[in-house]
Amino acid sequence: MHALANPTRFLRFARPATTWLLLIGLALTAVGIVAGLALTPPDYLQGETVRILYIHVPSAWLGMAGWMGIAGGSISQLVWRHPLAAVAGRAVAPAGATFAAICLLTGSIWGRPAWGTWWEWDGRLTSMLVLFFLYLGYIALASSERERGGEGRIAAIYGLVGAINLPIIHFSVLWWRTLHQGSSIGVTGSSIDSSILWPLPLTMIGFTCLFAAAVLMRMRAELADAKVEARTRRLSA
Amino acid sequence: MNPWPFVIAAYGVSVALTLALLLWALASMRRAEAAADALKRR
Fold first, then answer.
1. Higher pLDDT residue, B2 or B42?
2. Smallest CA–CA distance from B18 into chain A, residue
3. CB atoms B13 and A59 under 8 Å
4. In chain B, fewer beta carbons within 10 Å around the N or the C end?
5. d(Cα A220, Cα A226) in Å, to the nearest integer?
6. Which residues, 6+ apart, have CB-to-CB distance to A143 below 8 Å?
7. A195: left (phi over 0), alpha (psi -120 to 50) or beta
8. What residues does each domain of chain A span?
Protein backbone atom coordinates (compact mmCIF):
# COMPACT_ATOMS: atom_id res chain seq x y z
CA MET A 1 0.00 0.00 0.00
CA HIS A 2 2.70 2.46 1.05
CA ALA A 3 4.71 1.63 -2.09
CA LEU A 4 1.82 3.10 -4.11
CA ALA A 5 1.66 6.31 -2.07
CA ASN A 6 3.51 8.13 -4.83
CA PRO A 7 0.93 9.12 -7.53
CA THR A 8 3.45 8.55 -10.38
CA ARG A 9 4.24 5.05 -9.12
CA PHE A 10 0.50 4.43 -8.60
CA LEU A 11 -0.29 5.44 -12.20
CA ARG A 12 2.45 3.13 -13.52
CA PHE A 13 0.64 0.28 -11.77
CA ALA A 14 -2.95 1.50 -12.41
CA ARG A 15 -2.77 1.92 -16.21
CA PRO A 16 -2.16 -1.76 -17.12
CA ALA A 17 -4.12 -3.00 -14.08
CA THR A 18 -7.28 -1.18 -15.25
CA THR A 19 -7.25 -2.96 -18.63
CA TRP A 20 -6.52 -6.38 -17.14
CA LEU A 21 -9.18 -6.04 -14.43
CA LEU A 22 -11.76 -4.95 -17.03
CA LEU A 23 -10.99 -7.85 -19.38
CA ILE A 24 -10.85 -10.53 -16.66
CA GLY A 25 -13.91 -9.08 -14.92
CA LEU A 26 -16.04 -8.98 -18.07
CA ALA A 27 -15.01 -12.52 -19.09
CA LEU A 28 -15.61 -14.11 -15.67
CA THR A 29 -18.89 -12.25 -15.09
CA ALA A 30 -20.20 -13.24 -18.54
CA VAL A 31 -19.29 -16.92 -18.03
CA GLY A 32 -20.72 -16.89 -14.50
CA ILE A 33 -24.01 -15.31 -15.66
CA VAL A 34 -24.44 -17.75 -18.55
CA ALA A 35 -23.63 -20.69 -16.25
CA GLY A 36 -25.97 -19.36 -13.55
CA LEU A 37 -28.84 -18.89 -16.00
CA ALA A 38 -28.44 -21.99 -18.15
CA LEU A 39 -26.11 -24.63 -16.71
CA THR A 40 -27.26 -25.12 -13.12
CA PRO A 41 -30.36 -27.01 -11.97
CA PRO A 42 -33.28 -25.22 -10.24
CA ASP A 43 -33.37 -25.44 -6.45
CA TYR A 44 -35.74 -28.06 -4.98
CA LEU A 45 -37.45 -25.41 -2.83
CA GLN A 46 -36.97 -22.04 -4.57
CA GLY A 47 -37.03 -23.32 -8.14
CA GLU A 48 -35.63 -21.01 -10.83
CA THR A 49 -35.49 -17.89 -8.60
CA VAL A 50 -32.37 -19.32 -6.90
CA ARG A 51 -30.46 -18.04 -9.97
CA ILE A 52 -30.65 -14.52 -8.52
CA LEU A 53 -28.05 -15.77 -6.01
CA TYR A 54 -25.22 -15.36 -8.57
CA ILE A 55 -25.71 -11.59 -8.73
CA HIS A 56 -27.22 -10.85 -5.32
CA VAL A 57 -24.35 -12.36 -3.25
CA PRO A 58 -21.50 -10.59 -5.16
CA SER A 59 -23.34 -7.26 -4.95
CA ALA A 60 -23.87 -7.68 -1.18
CA TRP A 61 -20.17 -8.53 -0.75
CA LEU A 62 -19.05 -5.55 -2.84
CA GLY A 63 -21.46 -3.15 -1.14
CA MET A 64 -19.85 -4.07 2.19
CA ALA A 65 -16.29 -4.42 0.84
CA GLY A 66 -16.54 -0.92 -0.59
CA TRP A 67 -17.17 0.54 2.86
CA MET A 68 -14.34 -1.60 4.29
CA GLY A 69 -12.13 0.07 1.64
CA ILE A 70 -13.39 3.52 2.67
CA ALA A 71 -12.73 2.73 6.35
CA GLY A 72 -9.22 1.40 5.53
CA GLY A 73 -8.50 4.50 3.44
CA SER A 74 -9.79 6.72 6.26
CA ILE A 75 -7.36 5.13 8.75
CA SER A 76 -4.57 5.47 6.21
CA GLN A 77 -5.39 9.14 5.73
CA LEU A 78 -5.83 10.05 9.39
CA VAL A 79 -2.84 8.05 10.70
CA TRP A 80 -0.25 8.07 7.89
CA ARG A 81 -1.57 10.99 5.78
CA HIS A 82 -1.38 8.74 2.70
CA PRO A 83 -1.66 11.16 -0.27
CA LEU A 84 -3.95 8.85 -2.24
CA ALA A 85 -6.25 7.78 0.62
CA ALA A 86 -8.83 10.57 0.15
CA VAL A 87 -8.74 10.04 -3.64
CA ALA A 88 -9.32 6.30 -3.10
CA GLY A 89 -12.23 6.97 -0.72
CA ARG A 90 -13.93 9.28 -3.22
CA ALA A 91 -13.34 6.71 -6.00
CA VAL A 92 -14.69 3.74 -4.01
CA ALA A 93 -17.91 5.45 -2.87
CA PRO A 94 -19.85 5.55 -6.21
CA ALA A 95 -18.91 1.91 -6.96
CA GLY A 96 -19.91 0.83 -3.44
CA ALA A 97 -23.20 2.74 -3.67
CA THR A 98 -23.95 1.13 -7.06
CA PHE A 99 -23.42 -2.40 -5.72
CA ALA A 100 -25.36 -1.67 -2.52
CA ALA A 101 -28.23 -0.50 -4.78
CA ILE A 102 -27.93 -3.65 -6.92
CA CYS A 103 -28.03 -5.76 -3.74
CA LEU A 104 -31.18 -3.98 -2.51
CA LEU A 105 -32.93 -4.17 -5.90
CA THR A 106 -32.09 -7.83 -6.63
CA GLY A 107 -33.00 -8.74 -3.04
CA SER A 108 -36.35 -7.02 -3.43
CA ILE A 109 -37.00 -8.75 -6.77
CA TRP A 110 -36.02 -12.10 -5.20
CA GLY A 111 -38.17 -11.40 -2.14
CA ARG A 112 -41.43 -11.11 -4.10
CA PRO A 113 -41.57 -14.76 -5.30
CA ALA A 114 -39.65 -16.18 -2.28
CA TRP A 115 -41.32 -14.33 0.62
CA GLY A 116 -44.40 -12.85 -1.05
CA THR A 117 -43.26 -9.26 -0.45
CA TRP A 118 -41.00 -6.70 -2.18
CA TRP A 119 -39.82 -5.20 1.11
CA GLU A 120 -39.86 -5.87 4.83
CA TRP A 121 -38.25 -3.79 7.60
CA ASP A 122 -36.09 -6.79 8.44
CA GLY A 123 -32.71 -6.33 10.19
CA ARG A 124 -30.59 -7.32 7.15
CA LEU A 125 -32.62 -5.35 4.61
CA THR A 126 -32.80 -2.24 6.77
CA SER A 127 -29.07 -2.24 7.66
CA MET A 128 -28.21 -2.65 3.95
CA LEU A 129 -30.48 0.30 3.11
CA VAL A 130 -28.68 2.31 5.82
CA LEU A 131 -25.37 1.40 4.11
CA PHE A 132 -26.70 2.76 0.80
CA PHE A 133 -27.67 6.06 2.47
CA LEU A 134 -24.27 6.19 4.20
CA TYR A 135 -22.65 6.01 0.75
CA LEU A 136 -24.80 8.88 -0.51
CA GLY A 137 -23.83 10.92 2.56
CA TYR A 138 -20.14 10.12 2.04
CA ILE A 139 -20.29 11.13 -1.65
CA ALA A 140 -21.96 14.46 -0.78
CA LEU A 141 -19.59 15.18 2.14
CA ALA A 142 -16.36 14.20 0.35
CA SER A 143 -17.17 16.17 -2.80
CA SER A 144 -18.21 19.30 -0.90
CA GLU A 145 -15.04 19.06 1.22
CA ARG A 146 -12.95 18.75 -1.95
CA GLU A 147 -14.65 21.77 -3.54
CA ARG A 148 -13.81 23.83 -0.44
CA GLY A 149 -10.16 22.74 -0.77
CA GLY A 150 -10.19 20.57 2.36
CA GLU A 151 -7.99 17.53 2.94
CA GLY A 152 -10.95 15.20 3.34
CA ARG A 153 -10.50 14.65 7.07
CA ILE A 154 -14.21 15.10 7.89
CA ALA A 155 -15.13 12.53 5.23
CA ALA A 156 -12.46 10.19 6.67
CA ILE A 157 -13.99 10.46 10.17
CA TYR A 158 -17.45 9.87 8.66
CA GLY A 159 -16.02 6.80 6.84
CA LEU A 160 -14.72 5.37 10.11
CA VAL A 161 -17.94 6.04 12.04
CA GLY A 162 -20.00 4.51 9.21
CA ALA A 163 -18.00 1.27 9.51
CA ILE A 164 -20.03 0.51 12.66
CA ASN A 165 -22.81 -0.52 10.27
CA LEU A 166 -20.73 -3.39 8.76
CA PRO A 167 -20.88 -5.79 11.75
CA ILE A 168 -24.54 -4.82 12.16
CA ILE A 169 -25.23 -5.98 8.57
CA HIS A 170 -23.19 -9.16 9.08
CA PHE A 171 -24.74 -10.21 12.39
CA SER A 172 -28.25 -8.87 11.70
CA VAL A 173 -29.48 -12.33 10.66
CA LEU A 174 -28.37 -13.71 14.05
CA TRP A 175 -29.49 -10.80 16.22
CA TRP A 176 -32.93 -10.32 14.66
CA ARG A 177 -34.47 -13.53 13.36
CA THR A 178 -37.03 -12.13 10.95
CA LEU A 179 -37.35 -12.73 7.22
CA HIS A 180 -33.85 -12.88 5.70
CA GLN A 181 -32.19 -16.28 5.91
CA GLY A 182 -29.02 -16.87 7.91
CA SER A 183 -25.58 -17.27 6.32
CA SER A 184 -25.49 -20.22 3.93
CA ILE A 185 -21.89 -19.62 2.80
CA GLY A 186 -19.07 -19.48 5.35
CA VAL A 187 -15.29 -19.67 5.44
CA THR A 188 -15.35 -23.40 6.22
CA GLY A 189 -18.08 -24.49 3.82
CA SER A 190 -21.56 -23.98 2.43
CA SER A 191 -25.01 -25.46 2.95
CA ILE A 192 -25.75 -24.94 -0.78
CA ASP A 193 -25.29 -27.98 -3.01
CA SER A 194 -22.17 -27.83 -5.20
CA SER A 195 -24.24 -28.38 -8.39
CA ILE A 196 -25.87 -24.99 -7.72
CA LEU A 197 -22.93 -23.25 -6.05
CA TRP A 198 -20.14 -23.58 -8.65
CA PRO A 199 -20.86 -20.47 -10.83
CA LEU A 200 -20.87 -18.24 -7.73
CA PRO A 201 -17.04 -17.92 -7.43
CA LEU A 202 -16.97 -16.85 -11.11
CA THR A 203 -19.42 -13.97 -10.59
CA MET A 204 -17.85 -13.11 -7.20
CA ILE A 205 -14.36 -12.71 -8.72
CA GLY A 206 -15.73 -11.21 -11.96
CA PHE A 207 -17.78 -8.47 -10.30
CA THR A 208 -14.90 -7.81 -7.86
CA CYS A 209 -12.53 -7.21 -10.81
CA LEU A 210 -15.09 -4.85 -12.41
CA PHE A 211 -15.50 -3.01 -9.11
CA ALA A 212 -11.70 -2.64 -8.82
CA ALA A 213 -11.48 -1.44 -12.45
CA ALA A 214 -14.17 1.22 -11.80
CA VAL A 215 -12.28 2.38 -8.68
CA LEU A 216 -8.96 2.62 -10.56
CA MET A 217 -10.59 4.55 -13.41
CA ARG A 218 -12.15 7.03 -10.95
CA MET A 219 -8.80 7.42 -9.16
CA ARG A 220 -7.05 8.11 -12.46
CA ALA A 221 -9.76 10.68 -13.31
CA GLU A 222 -9.35 12.39 -9.91
CA LEU A 223 -5.54 12.52 -10.28
CA ALA A 224 -5.79 13.94 -13.81
CA ASP A 225 -8.34 16.54 -12.65
CA ALA A 226 -6.01 17.54 -9.80
CA LYS A 227 -3.13 17.88 -12.28
CA VAL A 228 -5.26 20.13 -14.54
CA GLU A 229 -6.35 22.28 -11.58
CA ALA A 230 -2.76 22.70 -10.35
CA ARG A 231 -1.44 23.55 -13.82
CA THR A 232 -4.28 26.02 -14.50
CA ARG A 233 -3.59 27.74 -11.19
CA ARG A 234 0.12 27.95 -12.05
CA LEU A 235 -0.56 29.34 -15.54
CA SER A 236 -2.98 31.98 -14.27
CA ALA A 237 -0.65 33.09 -11.43
CA MET B 1 -46.11 -17.59 -10.26
CA ASN B 2 -43.74 -17.65 -13.26
CA PRO B 3 -40.25 -17.09 -11.79
CA TRP B 4 -38.48 -16.08 -15.02
CA PRO B 5 -39.66 -12.43 -15.19
CA PHE B 6 -38.15 -11.95 -11.71
CA VAL B 7 -34.87 -13.64 -12.67
CA ILE B 8 -34.60 -11.61 -15.90
CA ALA B 9 -35.46 -8.35 -14.10
CA ALA B 10 -32.78 -9.01 -11.44
CA TYR B 11 -30.12 -9.76 -14.05
CA GLY B 12 -31.22 -6.82 -16.21
CA VAL B 13 -30.95 -4.36 -13.31
CA SER B 14 -27.53 -5.72 -12.29
CA VAL B 15 -26.02 -5.68 -15.78
CA ALA B 16 -27.45 -2.22 -16.58
CA LEU B 17 -26.20 -0.60 -13.36
CA THR B 18 -22.75 -2.27 -13.58
CA LEU B 19 -22.32 -1.17 -17.21
CA ALA B 20 -23.51 2.36 -16.36
CA LEU B 21 -20.92 2.55 -13.55
CA LEU B 22 -18.11 1.29 -15.81
CA LEU B 23 -19.02 3.57 -18.73
CA TRP B 24 -19.29 6.63 -16.46
CA ALA B 25 -15.92 5.81 -14.82
CA LEU B 26 -14.30 5.20 -18.24
CA ALA B 27 -15.72 8.40 -19.78
CA SER B 28 -14.69 10.57 -16.82
CA MET B 29 -11.18 9.05 -16.82
CA ARG B 30 -10.71 9.58 -20.56
CA ARG B 31 -12.00 13.16 -20.40
CA ALA B 32 -9.79 14.05 -17.41
CA GLU B 33 -6.63 12.40 -18.84
CA ALA B 34 -7.19 14.03 -22.26
CA ALA B 35 -7.51 17.45 -20.59
CA ALA B 36 -4.32 16.83 -18.56
CA ASP B 37 -2.41 15.75 -21.71
CA ALA B 38 -3.67 18.77 -23.69
CA LEU B 39 -2.54 21.13 -20.93
CA LYS B 40 0.87 19.44 -20.74
CA ARG B 41 1.39 19.92 -24.50
CA ARG B 42 0.59 23.66 -24.25
1. B2
2. A98
3. no
4. C
5. 10
6. A90
7. alpha
8. 52-181+196-236
